[in-house]
Amino acid sequence: MEIWINPACSKCRSALTLLDAEGADYTVRRYLEDVPTPDEIRAVLDRLGLEPWDITRTGEADAKELGLKDWPKEAGSRDRWIEALAAHPKLIQRPIITAEDGTAVVARTEEAVRDALSREK
């Protein structure tokens, strides 16, 4: 399993603490430093079963500068959103855990982290 984190994020630190407490085998990706490509973002979205606007932190300054709240949330705009996430990784919701079974979760709660752990067994 891999977890995309921002070390400054309390939800990311909580997820790591829980993974460690459960003895999980995982890899950390500091996605602000090791920025995902548009193709990696597409793959994670497919695993999540979500659209790019579903994992976009629209309250961030970058989102406001880009005017994301006015962008259409439709299939024809999907690539534009993905390109924005790749260019501005701070906009990606965190943490994201990709499980060995091919799925992924946005692990902002203990329940979501435990859900990801259950997919590893």
Structure description:
The model has no long low-confidence stretch (mean pLDDT 96). Strands 2-1-3-4 form a four-stranded mixed β-sheet, sandwiched between helices. It is globular, with a radius of gyration of 14 Å. It starts with a strand and ends with a helix. The relative contact order is 0.22. 40% of the residues lie in helices and 12% in strands. With 121 residues, it is of the alpha+beta class. A hairpin with a 5-residue loop joins strand 3 and strand 4 (104-106). The chain has helices at 10-21, 38-48, 61-66, 78-87, 110-118; strands at 2-5, 27-30, 96-98, 104-106. It folds into two domains: 1-31 and 94-121; 36-92, no CATH class.
List the helices and strands and how they pair.
Blueprint: E1 2-5, H1 10-21, E2 27-30, H2 38-48, H3 61-66, H4 78-87, E3 96-98, E4 104-106, H5 110-118
Helix pairs in contact: 1-5
Concise structural overview:
By secondary structure, the protein is α+β, with helices and mostly antiparallel strands.
| Secondary-structure class | alpha+beta
> Strands across the major sheet, in which order?
2-1-3-4
Count of helical segments? 5
Question: Would you report the number of β strands?
Answer: 4
